[in-house]
Write a structure and sequence with these properties.
The complex is a heterodimer. Chain A is α/β, with parallel strands linked by helices. Chain A has 2 domains: about 110 residues, no CATH class; about 130 residues. Helices cover about 40% and strands about 25% of the residues of chain A. In chain A, strands 4-2-5-10 form a 4-stranded mixed beta sheet. A 4-stranded mixed beta sheet of chain A has the order 6-9-7-8. Chain A has a two-stranded parallel ribbon with strand order 1-3. In chain A, helix 1 packs across helix 4 and helix 6 packs parallel to helix 8. Chain A starts with a strand and ends with a strand. Chain B is α/β, with parallel strands linked by helices. Chain B is built from 5 helices and 7 strands, in the order βαβαβαβαβαββ. Classes of the chains: A alpha/beta, B alpha/beta.
């Protein structure tokens, strides 16, 4: 098959646009979930908070104010078709797609008036890079000649409450579920409920965490295609919403809007479980080139 | 339904003591922004017995790092950040005169004790409503630690800034 070439600049411009749009426009499925939660909510204060979040989304879009001041660490998922190559600028042949993505993030955060929240190293100087780069980029090579880029602006507050644990392979669905529910309870008000909960089951140490984040990218209304895990998603969501954490932790039956489980094969000795907590300001957007 | 109480800053003991956990509070007047690094610096100055760049007496600190202001606007999105990260610092600032804080989420026992001892209050604003809350901010000016960028201390003027009294001066909590 012939190779398809995508221009370096096209990648830069796409990432820039995705960064800006994701921080100003709440995805339709999330907005719809907030609205139906507000209709269902029985707690008066919880209803009011959900109303504020819906109003915030419309204000952000209409008046061009970012949805949230924490415009996140930029996580980029790239699915690159095996038949796609990225052209590089003539004047700098050493550049590659990673540079294009980071250039797009830097432009998006500058031109979109987004907050730059990345420090160059974690424990010593913590100097802000002033570009919101480097992005965290996850690549996968897939068949075909398309390039799919997904940008997620992941807030720090909810990321801080995400957890990982190694279970025994003989542990049960109930044991794992109880721990997941406890992670959500402990996140509580600090992580900006109502949440979207990404769960990664299986894989190894890093895969469980990665698929727990990928789980967040699914449509809020869908279910895991495997009935066992689809039922587990539904059961977890019910139990989480029985915690009475509620929007902002003030109580109510809207603690999470959705639970998404992704799975991966794993070692006979292992049952890795990761919970990636996402706040209600669930900002992500994709483009297929 | 809970009470709605309008308060003006700076906060007096009487105003602080009139607030009970769960009350809806609309804050007007000057408030200061400050988050992790500004708190660390303020406490380092207090530890060294030095003068702070702002007088905290009766003041309110809002835990926020706003997005840049668009041309012609006062500020960008400006919602609260997680309060618990300031738990190690807040008691010291409360002892130095701070009367109120605005953030999101839980506070530790050390803060709750300080609220009781010094008659101060912790308010919660809606996390993730940064666009909506920015509409209540009518003025913004950096007054200290400009090098911290979004984490600089800003003097804000707010009108009817919507909060919930999360932890009151009596040991009460909305959570």
């Amino acid at each position: 098959m012939a190779t398809r070439t995508i221009q370096y600049e096209t990648v830069v411009e796409t990432v820039e646009r995705l960064c800006i749009e994701s921080c100003y426009e709440l995805p339709d499925d999330v907005l719809k979930a907030l609205k139906s939660a507000a209709d269902r909510e029985t707690d008066e204060r919880a209803k009011k908070i959900l109303g504020q979040l819906i109003e915030n989304a419309s204000l952000a879009q209409q008046e061009r104010i970012p949805l949230c001041q924490d415009t996140g660490l930029t996580v980029v998922f790239v699915e690159q078709g095996a038949d796609v190559t990225i052209s590089v600028p003539d004047d700098d042949p050493k550049l590659c797609i990673t540079d294009a993505i980071n250039e797009g993030v830097a432009k998006g955060y500058e031109n979109g008036l987004l907050r730059k929240s990345i420090v160059a190293e974690p424990l010593n100087e913590r100097t802000n890079t002033k570009t919101n780069t480097p992005a965290v980029i996850h690549y996968s090579i897939v068949p075909g000649d398309k390039l799919k880029i997904t940008v997620m602006a992941k807030g720090g507050g909810c990321e801080n409450k995400s957890r990982f644990k190694m279970f025994n392979p003989t542990d049960t669905k109930q044991t794992v579920s109880n721990w997941i529910i406890d992670v959500v309870r402990q996140a509580g008000a600090n992580a900006c409920p109502p949440f979207i909960i990404g769960v990664g089951l299986g894989g190894n140490f890093e895969t469980a965490c990665l698929i727990s984040k990928k789980a967040l990218l699914r449509n809020i209304d869908d279910h895991n295609p495997v009935q066992f895990y689809a039922e587990m998603e539904t059961e977890l969501l019910e139990k989480i919403n029985d915690l009475n954490v509620g929007p902002q932790g003030f109580g109510g039956n809207t603690t999470a809007l959705a639970v998404k489980i992704e799975t991966a094969p794993c070692h006979i000795a292992s049952l890795p479980v990761a919970v990636n907590i996402e706040c209600h300001s669930h900002r992500h957007k994709s483009q297929i080139l | 339904m809970s009470n709605v109480i309008r308060v003006n800053t700076p906060l007096s003991d009487d105003v602080v003591l009139s607030l009970r956990a769960g009350d809806e509070v609309l804050v007007s007047g000057v408030i200061y922004t400050g988050r992790d690094q500004a708190h660390k610096r303020l406490c380092e100055l207090l530890d060294a017995g030095k003068v702070l760049p702002i007088d905290l007496t009766g003041q309110v600190i809002y835990f926020v790092g706003p997005t840049p202001a668009a041309p012609g606007r006062v500020i960008g999105a400006a919602g609260p950040t997680t309060s618990s990260r300031m738990d190690a610092f807040s008691p010291k600032l409360i002892a130095a005169g701070l009367k109120g804080m605005i953030g999101k989420g839980y506070r530790g026992d050390e803060v709750r004790d300080a609220l009781k001892e010094y008659k101060a209050v912790h308010l919660a604003a809606t996390g993730g409503a940064g666009a909506l809350l920015s509409k209540c901010i009518v003025a913004s000016k950096i007054v200290a630690y400009a090098d911290l960028g979004t984490e600089a201390i800003r003097k804000l003027v707010v009108t009817d800034f919507p909060c919930v009294a999360a932890y009151d001066a009596y040991g009460g909590s909305v959570y």
